[in-house]
Amino acid sequence: MLNTLSGRFLILTAVFVMLAEVMIFVPSVARFREDFLQTRLERAQIASLVLLADEEVTPDLQEELLRNAGVFNVVLRRDEARQLVLTSLMPGPIAQTFDLRDAPAFTLIRDATRRMLTPQTQVIRVIGQPVRMGGLLIEITLETDQLRMAMIDYGLRILLLSMVISIFTAVLLFLAVRVFLVKPIKRVVGHMKSYAEAPEDARRVIQPSAGIIELREAEETLQSLQTQLTGALKQKEHLAQLGGAVAKVSHDLRNILTSAQLFTDRIEMSEDPSVKRMAPKLVNSLTRAVHLCEATLAYGKAEEPGPTLGRFRLADIVDDVIDSERLSIGDNNISFSQDIPDGLFLRADAEQLYRVIGNLVRNARQAIVNSRKPGEINIMASEDDKEWIIRISDTGPGLAPKAREHLFKPFQGGVTKGGTGLGLSIAIELTRGHGGDLMLERTDETGTTFCVTLPKGNFSQEG
After folding, report:
1. For the whole model, what pTM was predicted?
2. Cα three-residue angle 94-95-98, rounded to 5 degrees
3. For the chain, which residues make up each domain, given as ranges?
4. Signal peptide location in the record (predicted)?
5. CATH fold of 308-461
6. Which position has the higher pLDDT, 160 or 242?
7. Among 38-42, 161-165, 441-445, which stretch is predicted with the lowest mean pLDDT?
8. Which residues are within 8 A (CB) of 61 and not within 5 positions of it... i.e. 6 or more apart?
9. What is the model's pLDDT at position 340?
10. Concatenated DSSP letters of 304-326
11. Contact, 149 vs 141, CB < 8 A?
């Protein structure tokens, strides 16, 4: 019970109500003390009126008047020259004097608190203003025992009433919290448990229904989260199925490509100059395809295997990429240019870097083709003491906002209409496998530039 939200709310409500009542209690007791003393002053004023009506009042009658008023002495000053006095024997000396005329609230609270905390009976003098313009001032003396007992009795009744109010209020708030907060929260928790049992089931996504704004916002946020998670799980399931299908296709494709390699060996023996020039490139392309199929089968997952480092001339890789892309141009007016220093050697995985540059160049070609305008694709490379830098630029129409938002995400960041986005996803994964990075440097209506950076490390000192 105490560990529940409603239980703790019940306790806190009772405590806070009691604290509020305590803050009210002290001023209330001070007010009660002031009323008590004012009543004694009024009684004493009435008793003094008897002396005013008949100055020959007997001592017995004076004592009875004072006893009925609850005081020992009365001094009523009606003008500067005349005072009416009722007096009797006092049990002790006067301990304190209190002036109730225009007394500030702080003084009344302080005096009431001191009286509550002083158990000894004392004789006090009280000065006040006569009622109904009955004189200049009235002064009485009385004992504090009745005053203190009346204050204690009043305080206990106030505390008892406060306790009843706090308990009643706490119970009402407890019930309100259970209806308006605890039940909706339990409903949300129930939806979360149900969703956790089968997160791929879209029917278990929570449907917001809370009437409280904050709870409804929480439900809407949870609904968005569950919807995204369900979509992600379905996508991962599709990717897993796709991975299995790719592995099967790769197995059969490897066999087909291996057979094709045997035929290309014979083609290389041809005396035709064109065949001799194209045959090595065909052999390289088939070799890369076979290696890719073998890597897919060996790894068995969507991730790429680690790079196999080797030293090679970058211009050779770029030439192979451009030659392959030229075959796919067809009738489109697309030109290729490169600015690769002849002596620029890299230490990386040649096959993986070919795939990185090939995917970026292929995306650039498809973007220009879709624009149905002439264009140019440029590959430029440079190096410094820390890294190799490769830039692939095109004069295409630039990336669409959706492509920029989901850049490098498979099946979401396609740069061309109908594209899957796998090219950029593969390119950045292979680049980061080398410890480098792939960045979009610029994209606008004049074209797009991607930048590949590969760290040198200690590789630049090797062979």
Report:
1. 0.44
2. 90
3. 5-169, 308-461
4. none
5. Heat Shock Protein 90 (3.30.565)
6. 160
7. 161-165
8. 50
9. 93
10. PPPP--EEEEHHHHHHHHHHHHH
11. no
